[in-house]
Amino acid sequence: MSERREPRSFYPTISPTWWLKKRSYFMFMMRELSSVFVAAFVLLFMYELFLLSKGPETFNLFQESLRRPLFLLFYAIALIFAIYHTITWFGVLSRIQVVRIGSWTLPPIFVTLSAFGAWFAISAAVAWYFVK
Amino acid sequence: MTEPRITLEVARYSPEEDDEPAFQKYEIPYREDWVVLDALNHIKDYVDETLTYRWSCRMGVCGSCGTMVNGEPKLTCSTFLRDYYPGTITVEPLANFPVARDLVIEMDDFMEKLQAVKPWIIRDEEDEKPVSEGEHLQTPKQLEEFKQFTMCINCMLCYSACPVYGLEESFVGPAALALAHRYNLDSRDKGNDERTHVVASSEGIWECTFVGECSVVCPKHVDPAAAIQRTKVATTKDWFKSVLMPWGAKS
Lengths: 132, 251
Description:
Helix content of chain B: 25-40%
Number of domains of chain A: 1
Strand order of the largest sheet of chain B: 2-1-5-3-4
Strand content of chain B: 5-15%
Number of helices of chain B: 9
CATH class of chain A: Mainly Alpha
Oligomer: heterodimer
Strand order of the largest sheet of chain A: 1-2
Low-confidence stretches of chain A: none
CATH superfamily of the largest domain in chain B: Alpha-helical ferredoxin
Number of helices of chain A: 4
Radius of gyration of chain A: 24 Å
Distance between the termini of chain A: 76 Å
Shape of chain B: elongated
Mean pLDDT of chain A: 91
CATH superfamily of chain A: Fumarate reductase/succinate dehydrogenase, transmembrane subunit
Number of strands of chain B: 7
Mean pLDDT of chain B: 94
CATH class of the largest domain in chain B: Mainly Alpha
CATH topology of the largest domain in chain B: Fumarate Reductase Iron-sulfur Protein, Chain B, domain 2
Largest interface: A-B, 27 and 33 residues
CATH architecture of the largest domain in chain B: Orthogonal Bundle
Number of domains of chain B: 2
Shape of chain A: flat
Order of helices and strands of chain A: HHHEEH
Structural class of chain B: alpha+beta
């Protein structure tokens, strides 16, 4: 307690570590961070496409270098973040997009299931194409 | 048998004397059917009459008694002591707002933002009919479109849970944007264009990064996060329509 003065409201400040104080805030920040890894993966992929124009030797050389442990670790982290990003977004999709067919509103669970269904179907088709 | 007791640590702040809030401990009788508001009223009536806090209806309708209970935004009238007993309960003013005294926050910023989105039915003067012609009827289906968003009681718990509002005071915020969405969806309302410059501004829906905590803490299950994301979809559609079909863009 100090001496009396003119009344003055207290203005709280938010700590830079606010996102570590609650699990939901932390998971939100991880979702935001996942975009960085997804963007880095896309840039790398685009660079690979660019190298295709430089001929098979240059492309294959770079492909070989991608098999180094550091790149494999990056791919593993990017994959985990991409899956996490996808699951969290598809999980809330039905709250964002209300689907109406005529006057009938599609139940939210069907919106979510159709997103996950499409994701699994496309992933399976891509996997089948490369594995066959 | 000794009477069960519970400890409350309540944030105190005197605007004439203190530089920052400090906790004060109160040990009071524990009753299983008491909510935190009952405990605060007991302190005020029997222990410390200087404790300052807001409350009114005691039934989760007026939205006056929002505070941080153990770090979570809660209505003190709906938060039971038994959910925390025998642990200590901390009670603080709503986060992200200036503290006027003890648990009382300044709500001017919220009131200004609420007013800015014009949360009332706006009619086109040329479409208006005299009162003698009766009500503007609405079907249950039309009501269903926005009913969820009418449940907002302006308690500001959502602002308290929103880190975006905590970091960017200019953000219009969850409740105001949810109410704007509520009126935009109302079949009787024609005010979408009047609200757009606030709602779709950089301080409006686009400031929201969808943390989603506003919807988690909402005591009325309004889901402001969904309202904001749906408004993003609607305004994006409107923008594309205005670019692709400038002769008839109105939705």
